[in-house]
């Protein structure tokens, strides 16, 4: 048998042994020219078919003509009259072929694994060596079951050989189990009845459950299995911990694990949707990490739904391979329904969720699907970026360029999640870091959409006040958005301007923002006066803080008495105002080194100049306000006819200055400032 050399010629397969072939076996479009006895020694079914054919050929009337026996002819008595006629016609055709060849032919229809699997079966029967892999073992195992190549019929038969390879090599490796599960799709009925599909899924869940989420969701050891395993890449080798590693070694190991994770997810994305969902359901029932499950779902969506990520959009594939819109919608809804409800610890998933949401809107997915994605995004909104929030308005009902209602709904889900969360991290000042990140994100979104001419003032106002006061440490970002909106909408009324400016808290503007706002002609006069008042107040505190810091003793003077607690607290508060930088508060220590004296004097001089400039601007506004009051009082003292005649003149004066004057509106000494905002607390 060692001298046998099988070869393939076109659609025929020959086994050259020096002896002529005495049987033909047809599988799909391939004809195998073989010998009876090697096949009959290993396969009970082939032995039975060949024996029945020989018996029938000797019992015929004409002994020179051989009857052809097919797999279906063994059950011909159970079939109807029409099927028997078709088989007889087929027998006549095959009899003619048999007369030409001189030996019988057996046709195996619906053979599991097609002709490639039967070729491996023939090699096994002839004793020819061949390699097993995760891609070939499952079809070969099903073919051996179909041909009844059991251990009872012949020792060390094909069924036991393939079972050993599955147990020792395939089921012990995560990636090999996924590859084997992929091949189960072509022989799904038989593979399911043999339990191969179930064992592959159990192996995947078991191996994936050992993953450490801190190590990119990949198991530390994913070896290729037992001895003799084939088709195993180098990335499946185990990672052996070596104590304290160097930085380069740690980075190299992390990159290797990250690469392994991507390979695993890519392999899993090759599965068909029914088998993939079966794996996901098994993962969820096996208490697998929600991060791993979510990553699997997102990777599968990226593979089969085009255009999820803006940076990876490609031209659509050919019509023969592209999925229809209905298929993509069904796939998206199925994946969304299996997303874990828990908040993911992987920050990159937020961008994928926004991509799924945009695709769901384009494909007109169900309301349940979109609501699930919005709630999922809302639970981790602090990880989003401004580019994520800029979702275009795909509906003709929305006049704005971007979908503002969508962002408002997502923000509502975030606030609801924050209120229900009992483990929210809160800093010492009572602020939540996630809430402050979302506040900065919303301010950026407001500044981006403020230039839209179709954006209504009511919608801008509602989104601006939807966040509580604790979300913003400073209102500089909100002031920028208000300024952009007023510049892009010069036609809004004075009442709307005052309402829009009411979303700002002038006390939370920095000195730079106050200086800009004081010179901003687009702001209403009431807002400018408030800004000037608080700017002057901040400058006074800053100058006082500088003077107190300059008068404080140096650290070398340790014998002097320590200041009181009240004085220290006041100095700390004032110094914080001076040393604010990039929105971060720094606590003053109340003492400076002697070497910083010159720098402090220069800062004091600059602050005094700024104070003088501000005082001059305030006095100028007071004089203008006083002169306008005198003009109005003079008009009021005139008689009623004169008042009727001069009313247009009064109106022109009011229109010229762009405001309606009331008592003490422009009084810089007014002690009470009215807050017109209604914020969510």
TrEMBL record:
Residues 604-638 form a coiled coil. SMART domains: BTB. SUPFAM superfamilies: POZ domain (SSF54695). Residues 262-538 form the NPH3 domain. Pathway: Protein modification; protein ubiquitination. Residues 84-101 have a biased composition (Acidic residues). Keywords: Coiled coil, Ubl conjugation pathway. One of its GO terms (biological process) is protein ubiquitination. InterPro entries: BTB/POZ_dom (IPR000210), NPH3/RPT2-like (IPR043454), NPH3_dom (IPR027356), SKP1/BTB/POZ_sf (IPR011333). It comes from the Eukaryota. It holds the Pfam family NPH3. Residues 21-134 form the BTB domain. Residues 71-107 are annotated as: Disordered. Belongs to the NPH3 family. This is BTB/POZ domain-containing protein. It comes from Noccaea caerulescens (Alpine penny-cress).
């Amino acid at each position: 048998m060692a001298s046998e050399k099988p070869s393939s010629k076109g659609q025929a397969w020959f086994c050259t042994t020096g002896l002529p072939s005495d049987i033909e076996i047809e599988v799909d479009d391939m004809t195998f020219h073989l010998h009876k006895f090697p096949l009959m020694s290993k396969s009970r079914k082939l032995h039975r078919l060949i024996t029945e054919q020989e018996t029938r050929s000797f019992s015929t009337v004409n002994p020179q003509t051989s009857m052809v026996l097919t797999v279906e002819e063994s059950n011909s008595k159970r079939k109807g009259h029409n099927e028997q006629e078709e088989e007889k016609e087929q027998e006549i055709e095959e009899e003619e072929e048999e007369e030409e060849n001189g030996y019988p032919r057996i046709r195996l229809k619906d053979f599991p694994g097609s002709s490639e699997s039967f070729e491996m079966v023939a090699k096994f029967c002839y004793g020819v060596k061949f390699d097993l892999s995760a891609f070939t073992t499952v079809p070969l195992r099903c073919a051996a079951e179909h041909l009844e190549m059991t251990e009872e019929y012949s020792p060390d038969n094909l069924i036991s050989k393939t079972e050993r390879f599955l147990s020792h090599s395939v089921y012990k490796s995560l990636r090999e189990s996924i590859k084997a599960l992929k091949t189960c799709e072509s022989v799904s009925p038989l593979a399911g009845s043999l339990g191969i599909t179930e064992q592959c899924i159990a192996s995947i869940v078991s191996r994936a459950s050992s993953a450490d989420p801190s190590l990119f969701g990949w198991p530390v050891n994913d070896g290729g299995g037992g001895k003799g395993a084939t088709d195993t890449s180098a990335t499946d080798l185990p990672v052996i911990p070596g104590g304290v590693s160097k930085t380069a070694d740690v980075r190299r190991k992390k990159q290797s694990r990250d690469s392994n994770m991507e390979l695993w997810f890519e392999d899993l994305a090759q599965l068909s949707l029914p088998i993939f969902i079966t794996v996901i359901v098994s993962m969820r029932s096996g208490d697998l990490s929600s991060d791993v499950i979510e990553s699997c779902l997102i990777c599968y969506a990226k593979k089969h739904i085009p255009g999820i990520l803006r940076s990876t959009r490609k031209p659509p594939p050919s019509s023969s391979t592209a999925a229809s819109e209905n298929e993509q919608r069904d796939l998206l809804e199925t994946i969304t329904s299996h997303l874990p409800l828990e908040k993911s610890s992987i920050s990159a998933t937020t961008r994928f969720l926004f991509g799924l949401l945009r695709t769901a809107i384009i494909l007109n997915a169900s309301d349940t699907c979109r609501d699930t994605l919005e709630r999922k995004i809302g639970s981790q909104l602090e990880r989003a970026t401004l580019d994520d929030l800029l979702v275009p308005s795909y509906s003709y009902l929305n006049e704005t360029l971007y979908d503002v209602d969508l962002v408002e709904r997502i923000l509502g889900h975030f606030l609801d999640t924050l209120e229900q969360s009992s483990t929210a991290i809160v800093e010492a000042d009572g602020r939540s870091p996630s809430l402050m990140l979302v506040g900065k994100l919303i301010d950026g979104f407001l500044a981006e959409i403020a230039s839209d001419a179709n954006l209504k003032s009511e919608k801008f106002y509602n989104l601006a006040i939807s966040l509580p006061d604790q979300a913003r440490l400073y209102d500089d970002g909100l002031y920028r958005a208000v300024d952009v909106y007023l510049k892009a909408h010069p036609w809004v009324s004075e009442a709307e301007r005052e309402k829009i400016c009411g979303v700002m808290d002038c006390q939370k503007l920095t000195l730079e923002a106050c200086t800009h706002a004081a010179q901003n002609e687009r702001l209403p006069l009431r807002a400018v006066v408030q800004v000037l008042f608080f700017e002057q107040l901040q400058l006074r505190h800053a100058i006082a803080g500088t003077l107190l810091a300059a008068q404080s003793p140096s650290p070398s003077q340790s014998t002097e008495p320590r200041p009181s607690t009240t004085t220290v607290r006041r100095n700390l508060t004032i110094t914080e105002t001076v040393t604010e930088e990039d929105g971060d508060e720094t606590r003053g220590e109340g003492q400076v080194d002697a070497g910083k004296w010159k720098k402090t004097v220069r800062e004091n001089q600059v602050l005094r100049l700024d104070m003088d400039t501000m005082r001059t601007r305030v006095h100028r506004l007071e004089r203008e306000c006083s002169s306008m009051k005198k003009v109005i009082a003079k008009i009021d003292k005139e008689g009623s006819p004169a008042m009727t005649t001069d009313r247009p003149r009064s109106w022109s004066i009011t229109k010229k200055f762009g405001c309606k004057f009331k008592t003490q509106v422009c009084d810089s000494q007014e002690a009470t400032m009215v807050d017109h905002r209604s914020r969510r607390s």
